[in-house]
Amino acid sequence: MSATTAVRRVTFGPSPGRTTLTLGLGVSLVLAAAGAAVLAGTSGIGIGDAVAIVAHRLTGIGPVTWPSSAETIVWELRLPRVLAGMVVGAGLACAGAVFQALLRNPLADPYIIGPAAGASLGAVAALLLPVATVGWLGLGLVQLLAFVGGLAAVTVVFTVARGQGGTPVVTLLLSGYAVSSLLSAAVAVLIFNAGERLGAVISWLLGSLAGASWARVGFAAPLIVISFTLLLLRWRRLNALLLGEAQAAHVGVDVEREKRILVGLAALATSAGVAISGTIGFVGLVVPHLVRLAVGPDHRLLLPASMLYGAALLVLADLGARMAGGIPVGVVTALIGAPFFLWLLRRSASGGWVSR
Amino acid sequence: MRETVIRLDGVVAGYRGAGGERRVLNGLDLAVGGGEMVALLGANGSGKTTLLNVMAGTIRPSAGSIELFGRPLSSWLRGEVARSVAVLPQSLELPAGFRVAEVVAMGRTAHGARWFGWTPDDMRAVEDALRDADALELADRPVTELSGGERQRVLVALALAQEPSLLLLDEPTTHLDVAHAAWLLASVARLRQLRGLTVVMVLHDLVLASAWAPRVVVLHGGRILADGPPHVALRPDIVRDAYGVAVETVVTEAGRRLIVPHVPAPAPEPASGPSGSAPSAR
After folding, report:
1. Most buried among A222, B6, B160, B190, using CB within 10 Å?
2. Does B87 contact A at CB distance below 8 Å?
3. What span, in angstroms and rounded, lies between the C-alpha atoms of A332 and B230?
4. pLDDT digits (tens, 9 = 90+) for B240-253
């Protein structure tokens, strides 16, 4: 074979076949989960009617051949709930993948530096305020204060951890732990004095998609899509960070700037998700880790795959929660996630995250 | 000396701690020209690694100036530095789950112009880096399944993938056995010719430094104690001041002059015999 026809022997990055398979399967799973979640329930709405209702609402064409109650159930209740599950699951999984890379720790999750605790304090305070009817853009005060609380907590954690020479991740973790503890204590005080609102408080803290609405989806979805897009564009830097901060700097990553950007974007996605769903646990820990085991650590594939499988998992978990009599979906994800977490601990005790 | 690659003038640098700044470099002047291969020597704490990090732009000096290719280093963006300067670390934890070529491609972090893929330039640079580091056959191996010597070749390839003009090596032979240390320095010398690299390396081993580095810079107390060819910069009095040990020059059969630590002549074996006196307790 002549030199001009020599094929390039060195290939790197996820192969096109693996990428197509991973993402194709993810999209199929999301669609299947969404379809099942829209159709499942006691109302007995057929697949034909459901498709026709959605098509009718989207395009305005076609005769109305279904009872208006079916339209309300599909369009006003189930579809927003499914979309909220997709958006929140995708955002948490993506943010989890980013934190795991930034902290070089497979046990990191999106809540690790405080957004959940901050959002909880904001939401619980709003639930207990006497002016619960205040709202903006169709959002309740609970969602707004949860969103602001989540972002504020991360800002405080980051500011506290920031020293003269930069922001060491260990300090970031410890600062996140301390601030989260403080905020949780404040939440506990509020819970103790919640009185008749205790049920609503507990329900929010456990994480639930029951209150999903188009307005809430419309609030969280753009924020999560934007932060995901900006994070995905940083895949090269995310990969390089896995070399450790010193070598990442040597290959051209401005590590301190990158930390601010990554933490900011991941916190934005997390806070937006938590604001409309409460603190749903384990999705942001389990999904990116499982996806990494399956497709490898390259963020070019890891981030979009985590989003798709996170979306599918949360929609399915919420379906399970509905089937189980309406328990909060956070309980279901914990029931799936906690045993997995234990398995993960066992596994990481024997196998490494880096090679020494 | 050809074009100056990097020039340091009156550089003061150190670390900030709870007790204020601890100075490591105390007004250091150094210029390295294109294509030079310089060994930095000095006792532990003399400032070698700090100097390397200052040259790599990861420690900012508190006083003095550094120019890289005639431009103040402080005005270079992180990515710009990485396209001109590569650092071969003493050791590195390689992230599990990647194949060798994928880790080497991380050396292209500051180059990749495409949003979502690698350019033909990136692919060529990675392949060239693997070939030049004798690591081409490792390209598809998982990084967790490499021997120590193979890992060192991968690290060299990672640095070469940056297509640097200046290669900085931080105690590159510390974790290597004799054969791998010799391979590494021979490779660096070869790559210097092949790619026109300028090389600055921190070394601990006087023998290796005198064997491989045409120019040796000896640091002591954050200043330059001596600077020149090995047989000049590593004169016994200088080495005694820098390390507190005696050295001697050994001329090899090939006529090369190596600087080796002075080994005292062994005490004569006590005469032994059936009727000999008891060995001395000394």
Report:
1. B160
2. yes
3. 70
4. 899 888 888 888 88
Shortest CA distance from B127: residue in chain A? A10
Write out the two tokens for B160.
């070469």
Of A236, A298, A354, the CB nearest to B94: A354
Say yes or no for a CB contact (<8 Å) between B92 and A239: no
In angstroms, rounded to a whole number, what is the distance separating the alpha carbons of residues A157 and A117?
11
d(CA A182, CA B152): 46
Nearest CA in chain A to B55: A250
Where do the structural domains in chain B lie, given as residue ranges?
1-69+165-244, 94-164
Contacts for A155 with CB less than 8 Å, ≥ 6 apart: none
Beta carbons of B78 and A252 less than 8 Å apart: yes
Contact: B58, A355; criterion CB under 8 Å: no
CB pair distance less than 8 Å for A250 and B105: no
Third-level CATH fold of A46-346: ABC transporter involved in vitamin B12 uptake, BtuC (1.10.3470)
- Predicted interface score ipTM higher than 0.90: no
Whether residues A247 and B102 touch (CB distance < 8 A) is answered with no
CB contact under 8 A, A13 and B118: yes
Helix B178-195 with B120-132: angle, nearest 10 deg = 130
Question: B1-69+165-244, what's its fold?
Answer: Rossmann fold (3.40.50)
Crossing angle between the packed helical segments A16-39 and A299-323, to the nearest 10 degrees? 20
Beta-carbon contacts of A282 under 8 Å, excluding residues fewer than 6 positions away, are A109, A333, A334, A336, A337, A338, A340, A341
Distance CA B67, CA A314 (A): 54
**Nearest-neighbour CA in chain A from B223: distance (Å):** 24
DSSP A287-333: HHHHHHHHH-S-HHHHHHHHHHHHHHHHHHHHHHHHHTTS--HHHHH
Distance from the Cα of A217 to chain B's closest Cα (Å) equals 28
A252 contacts B79? CB cut-off 8 A = yes
Would you give per-residue pLDDT tens digits along chain A (356 residues)?
Answer: 444 444 456 778 788 888 999 999 999 999 999 999 988 877 777 777 888 888 888 887 777 778 888 888 888 889 999 999 999 999 999 999 999 999 888 888 899 899 999 999 999 998 888 765 655 656 788 899 999 999 999 999 999 998 767 888 889 999 999 999 999 999 999 999 888 888 888 888 888 898 888 999 999 999 999 999 999 999 999 999 999 999 999 999 999 999 999 999 999 999 999 999 999 988 999 899 889 988 999 999 999 999 999 999 999 999 999 998 888 898 999 888 888 778 877 776 554 444 43
> What is the model's pTM?
0.88
Yes or no: say if B63 and B12 are a contact pair by the CB < 8 Å rule: yes
Cα distances (angstroms) measured from residue A108 to each of A93, A233, A302, B47, B274:
11, 21, 15, 36, 74
pLDDT for the residue A4:
43
